[in-house]
Amino acid sequence: MSLFDDDQPKKKTAHEIGSDLSLLSVDELDARIALLREEITRLEAERARKSASRSAAEGLFR
Predict the structure, then answer these.
(1) What is the pTM of this model?
(2) Are residues 21 and 29 in contact, defined by beta-carbon separation less than 8 angstroms?
(3) In the structure, what pLDDT confidence band is assigned to residue 2 with cuts at 50, 70 and 90?
(4) Would residue 37 count as lying in a domain?
(5) In a domain, 19, yes or no
């Protein structure tokens, strides 16, 4: 932990799982849905990349 960690601004979380949604507008909900869909796409792409790497590694050791 650095001596200067407290000097860095805290990054605001765009969405926290389980947070209260009752105060958000429809537009804010749509924006969060879009953000989460983009994150799901990113996660699925990474999973596919890792699966391909694993399959290639398994093929080498058979």
Answers:
(1) 0.64
(2) yes
(3) low
(4) yes
(5) no
16 CB neighbour count, 10 Å cutoff: 7
**Alpha helices in the chain, H assignment, sequence order:** 26-60
What values do phi and psi take at 43, rounded to 5?
Answer: -65, -40
Total domains in the chain come to 1
Q: Considering the domain boundaries, does residue 17 fall inside one?
A: no
pLDDT at 1 over 60: no
| CA distance linking residue 25 with residue 17, whole number of Å | 17
36 occurs within a structural domain: yes
Query: pLDDT, tens digit, for every residue of 19-58?
Result: 999 999 999 999 999 999 999 999 999 999 999 887 777 7
Under the phi-then-psi rule, with left for phi > 0, alpha for psi from -120 to 50, and beta for the rest, what region is 8?
A: beta
